């Protein structure tokens, strides 16, 4: 399977060092594509690669949307939505109430204060509005889940007792 690993250049450099330490080399089937979603589009970043939009693809976009302005999120979803039918995306997002500092989740304001100094969270979504948010991009919602789902479906069956934050959720959508 051909993989395009798209991330900030500094983040990719760290990942590459870890992979090389662990495996002794970078895998040949992975193309590292540097991008800053604040200033660049996914389309522009992939333009110089062998990525083929006419073939179905799986996009995994984790831990990015909260750092990206809404127009950057929309540009990325627009690109994904113009991919081949059957393509899908899995992405994480934080609750809009968190990014707007109006959440009643304990510790939310402290969390926002902590991230504000380094990489502020500037974008969030409302879970109930996800289907409508995805519609202009020709993306149909498959699943939208949060911490309770993670606990029940993945952690409890394995006997793991990890804390999963209420502030971040995950979406799975397909190009319709």
Number of helices: 7
Q: How many strands? A: 6
Helix fraction, binned, reads 25-40%
Strand order of the largest sheet: 3-4-6-5
Question: What portion of the residues fall into strands of 2 or more residues?
Answer: 15-25%
> For the residues shown, what is the average pLDDT?
94
Rg (CA only): 17 Å
Largest sheet: 4 strands, mixed
Which regions are unreliable across 5 or more consecutive residues at pLDDT < 50?
none
Q: What overall geometry do the principal axes of the alpha carbons give?
A: globular
Q: What is the H/E order?
A: EHEHEHEHHHEHE
How far is it from the N-terminal to the C-terminal residue, by CA? 23 Å
Task: Label the structural class.
Answer: alpha/beta
Short description:
The protein is α/β, with parallel strands linked by helices and 176 residues long.
Describe the structure.
The chain is of the alpha/beta class and 176 residues long. The protein is 34% helix and 20% strand. The protein is built from seven helices and six strands, in the order βαβαβαβαααβαβ. The protein has helices spanning 9-23, 42-46, 70-81, 96-99, 108-116, 130-134, 147-155, and strands at residues 3-7, 30-34, 58-61, 88-94, 139-145, 168-175. Strands 3-4-6-5 form a four-stranded mixed β-sheet. A two-stranded parallel ribbon has the order 1-2. β3, α3 (70-81) and β4 form a beta-alpha-beta unit. The two termini are 23 Å apart. The mean pLDDT is 94.
List the helices and strands and how they pair.
Elements: E1 3-7, H1 9-23, E2 30-34, H2 42-46, E3 58-61, H3 70-81, E4 88-94, H4 96-99, H5 108-116, H6 130-134, E5 139-145, H7 147-155, E6 168-175
Parallel strand pairs: 1-2, 3-4
Antiparallel strand pairs: 4-6, 5-6
